C-alpha cells in the first residue's frame, strides 16, 4: 500500500505549523497557514480516493464508484481559503500602513 501522500501531508502539516508558530512576520504566518491548509486539502482528497473506481456516472456492469462529495467540499474549501488569505493580506497591508511594520512585535 502506497502511503507517500500521507507522508507528504504530515511533512506539510509540520512545516506549516512550524512557520505559523516560529515566525513573527505576518506575511510569513499567512504563508504558513496556506501550507497547512494545502496539507489538509491533500489529506481529505487522499481519503476520498478509491483505487480502480469509476467517476460517479452510472454505467452498465460496474458497481464501484468514487464518492464526489469530499472532492466537492475541498473545492469549496479552496475558494474559502483564497478569500480568507486575501482578507488576511489586506489586514496585513493596513497594519503596515498604520504602524510601518508587519512584524508581530
Automatic annotation (TrEMBL):
<dbReference type="InterPro" id="IPR039428">
    <property type="entry name" value="NUOK/Mnh_C1-like"/>
</dbReference>
<dbReference type="InterPro" id="IPR050601">
    <property type="entry name" value="CPA3_antiporter_subunitC"/>
</dbReference>
<feature type="transmembrane region" description="Helical">
    <location>
        <begin position="33"/>
        <end position="51"/>
    </location>
</feature>
<comment type="similarity">
    <text>Belongs to the CPA3 antiporters (TC 2.A.63) subunit C family.</text>
</comment>
<keyword id="KW-0472">Membrane</keyword>
<dbReference type="Pfam" id="PF00420">
    <property type="entry name" value="Oxidored_q2"/>
</dbReference>
<protein>
    <submittedName>
        <fullName>Cation:proton antiporter</fullName>
    </submittedName>
</protein>
<feature type="transmembrane region" description="Helical">
    <location>
        <begin position="6"/>
        <end position="21"/>
    </location>
</feature>
<feature type="transmembrane region" description="Helical">
    <location>
        <begin position="71"/>
        <end position="93"/>
    </location>
</feature>
<dbReference type="GO" id="GO:0005886">
    <property type="term" value="C:plasma membrane"/>
</dbReference>
<keyword id="KW-0812">Transmembrane</keyword>
<keyword id="KW-1133">Transmembrane helix</keyword>
<keyword id="KW-1003">Cell membrane</keyword>
Amino acid at each position: 500500500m502506497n502511503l507517500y501522500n500521507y507522508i507528504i501531508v504530515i511533512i506539510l502539516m509540520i512545516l506549516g505549523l512550524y512557520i505559523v508558530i516560529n515566525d513573527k512576520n505576518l506575511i510569513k504566518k499567512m504563508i504558513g497557514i496556506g501550507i497547512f491548509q494545502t496539507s489538509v486539502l491533500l489529506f481529505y482528497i487522499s481519503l476520498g480516493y478509491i483505487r480502480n473506481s469509476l467517476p460517479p456516472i452510472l454505467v452498465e456492469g460496474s458497481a464501484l464508484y468514487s464518492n464526489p462529495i469530499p472532492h466537492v467540499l475541498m473545492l469549496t474549501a479552496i475558494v474559502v481559503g483564497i478569500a480568507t488569505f486575501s482578507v488576511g493580506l489586506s489586514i496585513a497591508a493596513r497594519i503596515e500602513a498604520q504602524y510601518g511594520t508587519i512584524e508581530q512585535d
